Amino acid sequence: MSKQPSSDRSAQISRKTKETDIRLSLNLDGGGKCSVRTGVGFFDHMLELLARHSLIDLSLQATGDLDVDAHHTVEDVGIVLGQAIEKALGEKRGIYRYGWAIVPMDESLAQVAIDLSGRPAFVFNVKFPRGTIGDFPVELVDEFFKSVATSAKMNLHIAVPYGSNNHHISEAIFKATAKALRQAVGHDPRNSDVPSTKGSL
To answer: How big is the chain by its Cα radius of gyration, in Å?
Structure first.
């Protein structure tokens, strides 16, 4: 007889280095409540979108060496978020495992696919027309999701076939990732076991 999925799918992770100090908690079965403060305004906005559209409750406080740049803060938040997702999933019993979404944002379109396989893999097929969104370097979008995928041990494929506005491209990516993640971590009513022929993920 297979075990029932865990009823508590929350996690708290802290990470402190010479570059960043991060405290994060999440609940995969939340309602999209979000309280984030990283010191990087645009990044906070994107994280709020991620929480709202995935229906994951997210609380995050991060301080980093922003006097250098935002790179370490964004990268380390991705690491901690990925670790929290993996911890909250536990044995991954009763989840759909796979999730995908296609999300438009005005003239931009993002396509995201996720496999909570226990194996990290990351593909980022995105071209931004300019190097920054305000003062936020667009390369950090790539760095953030690479950190999430690696730490959560997931396959994460992100593609934007077209788009001309940096903000819209980024927003479409975060929303599509949120929708795909919501599906992947969701409870499968037809399967209470681990969704793998190997018996574990």
So the answer is: 16
pLDDT at residue 6, as a whole number: 57
CB-CB contact of 36 with 50 (8 Å): no
Let me know if residue 25 belongs to a domain: yes
| Domain contains 201 | no
Q: What is the DSSP letter of 66?
A: T
Length of the chain, please?
A: 201
Residue range 20-43, pLDDT digits in tens: 999 999 999 999 999 999 999 999
- Residue 93: inside a domain, yes or no? yes
Distance CA 124, CA 112 (A): 10
Q: Tally Cβ neighbours within 10 Å of residue 196.
A: 13
Give the range of the structural domain holding residue 24, as residue numbers without chain letter: 10-185
Contacts 24+ apart (CB under 8 A), 2-6: 2/93, 2/192, 2/193, 3/91, 3/93, 3/192, 3/193, 4/93, 4/94, 4/192, 5/93, 5/94, 5/95, 5/187, 5/192, 6/90, 6/91, 6/93
Q: Mapping DSSP to helix (H, G, I), strand (E, B) and coil, where does residue 103 land?
A: strand
Please count the structural domains in the chain: 1
Identify the residue whose tokens are 């940096």.
166
Residue 192 lies in a domain: no
CATH number (domain holding residue 27): 3.30.230.40
